[in-house]
Amino acid sequence: MGAYQTIDPALAASALEWWHDAGVDLIVGDDPFDWLATPTDEAFAPMPGLALVTLPASPAAIAPAPAALPDTLEAFATWRMGPEAPEQGWTGISLAASGPADAAVMILVDCPDRDDGQAGQLLSGAPGRLFDRMLAAIGLSRDAVHIAAVCARRPAAGRMPRELETRLGEVSRHHVGLVAPKRLLLLGNAASRAILGTEMGQARGILHRLNHRTGTEGSTGEQDTGVVASFHPRFLLEKPVAKAEAWRDLQLLMKDIGA
């Protein structure tokens, strides 16, 4: 650097003013200071005569507590399609559950497929045709089962957002409680996580016991629902080799259902 430099007095004054406003009144002190030491409470103590003020949280930062879910299936179905449902901010349309309110078998999928919106029902198109054949193999039809989705609308990425997973799980378990089926078939990972809290692959092969009134596992008696996790029909279309395993799941679903 040269010996002679031109310093703008205005810039220098501006820098000094900034440091003054920041509280700097001494460049070098007489006592050494350990800059790597862990700060103590005293370091953040307010100046004499000043009090710390706690600002109230922004209204936008306070999440409202979820409203109580309707206690009848009819009211719940209306609420599920209304503005208070968790996924109402998503694009697309919501698809309502279908089937008898007192069905002995309930089917829960993750979300509508792309073609379901045009068809106006869950499990349409090629996955729906395979689903119908699966039901027929165990002596059932769409008219006899209650079909619902964890997400009434299809997420943008086709997968349930993690931040809504807990709430949608609560909604799904409440729905099961209102239907109170003898058997519940969970198709896919998202449905398995919503009800059983675990991935479908880990939940398969077991007839889980769910208290449909409390939403907890391990119950027996009149409030007991037998739960089976299996593959979604769309997966079976991509991996036909898994159909044999899906057939075993269906047999487990219907085992002793009349008992």
Automatic annotation (TrEMBL):
Pfam families xrefs: UDG
Q: What CDD domains does the database record attribute to this sequence?
A: UDG-F4_TTUDGA_SPO1dp_like
Q: Which UniProt keywords apply?
A: 4Fe-4S, DNA damage, DNA repair, Hydrolase, Iron, Iron-sulfur, Metal-binding
Q: What domain of life does the UniProt record list for this protein's source? A: Bacteria
Name the Gene Ontology molecular function terms of this record. Answer: 4 iron, 4 sulfur cluster binding; deaminated base DNA N-glycosylase activity; metal ion binding
Q: Which InterPro entries match?
A: UDG_Type-4/5, Uracil-DNA_glycosylase-like, Uracil-DNA_glycosylase-like_sf
UniProt keyword Endoplasmic reticulum present: no
Q: Which GO terms describe its biological process?
A: DNA repair
Name all Uracil-DNA glycosylase-like domain ranges.
96-251
> What is the protein's given name?
DNA polymerase
Q: What species does this protein belong to?
A: Sphingomonas carotinifaciens
What is the phylogenetic placement of the source species in the record?
Answer: Bacteria, Pseudomonadati, Pseudomonadota, Alphaproteobacteria, Sphingomonadales
